[in-house]
Design a protein that fits this description.
Length: 237
């Protein structure tokens, strides 16, 4: 049990960034339509997941609402944020969580890095959101044809090296991808799914903060796969 934990100051870490964002938006944004009515509050992990699933259905059907994405919403959020879900996603330009889930400013606390790898820095970012904002859901979001997985498989097969710090990504993914290379099916797809499951496990196994919240029923961690061809996000772990 964690007996005492000093809480970080939301104002000290976030206010400066919020003010800068408002100034940038005011300078460069064009007039937007009136903001859509705010959604009902999300109170449980199950409700958080349903909201994301409903948003993805809107996205794939071409009926996205693009909620609270205007300058007025940005002004409202400058004083503080309360994202209901956290994403651990790939940095791939085609995998933008707010777009895929049809969410707006302040809804999601995004953590994105090639290969959606949970290293110490990313884990601290996720823990911050869990502690500071009480987010109810963590989604590890992998995607088909992931370049980081492909690069790792190529390095394993060729025995070669990759340039610069890209090797750090390959080194992190190698122990996850290598064991599934001999499985039937597409090796990249097998690697993508194995990596999603591994990162889901890592979040609770390496974080007492996350594990406690999951045990209390205040947080859920799920793995999901994004299909680049049709835009659908499906649970896989």
């Amino acid at each position: 049990m964690i007996v005492a934990r000093s809480h970080l100051s939301r104002r000290s870490l976030l206010t400066a960034g919020g003010v800068a964002a408002v100034a940038l938006g005011a300078a460069g944004a064009s007039p937007s339509a009136a903001a859509a009515p705010a959604d009902n509050p999300v109170d449980t992990p199950a409700e958080a997941l349903r909201r994301l699933q409903a948003g993805n259905r809107r996205f794939t059907s071409g009926h996205g609402r693009h909620p609270h994405q205007g300058l007025t919403d940005l002004h409202r959020l400058a004083a503080g944020q309360h994202p209901f879900a956290i994403t651990v996603g790939c940095a791939d330009s085609r995998v933008a969580p707010e777009v895929l889930f049809d969410q707006g400013l302040g809804d999601l606390f995004d953590n994105r890095v090639a290969g959606n790898i949970v290293d110490d820095l990313l884990l601290g970012s996720v823990e911050f959101a869990v502690e500071e904002f009480g987010s109810l859901l963590i989604v590890v979001l992998g995607h088909e044809r992931c370049g980081a997985i492909t690069a790792t498989i190529d390095a394993i097969h060729t025995g070669g090296t990759v340039p610069g710090h890209i090797g750090t990504i390959v080194d992190a993914l190698r122990p996850i991808v290598e064991p599934v290379l001999d499985q039937p099916g597409d090796p990249v797809e097998n690697g993508v799914r194995a990596n999603i499951a591994a990162q889901v496990r890592a979040l609770s196994a390496r974080s007492t903060i996350i594990a406690e919240k999951v045990h209390e029923g205040a947080l859920r961690v799920v793995g999901a796969r994004y299909d680049l061809d049709n835009g659908r996000v499906s649970l896989v772990a």
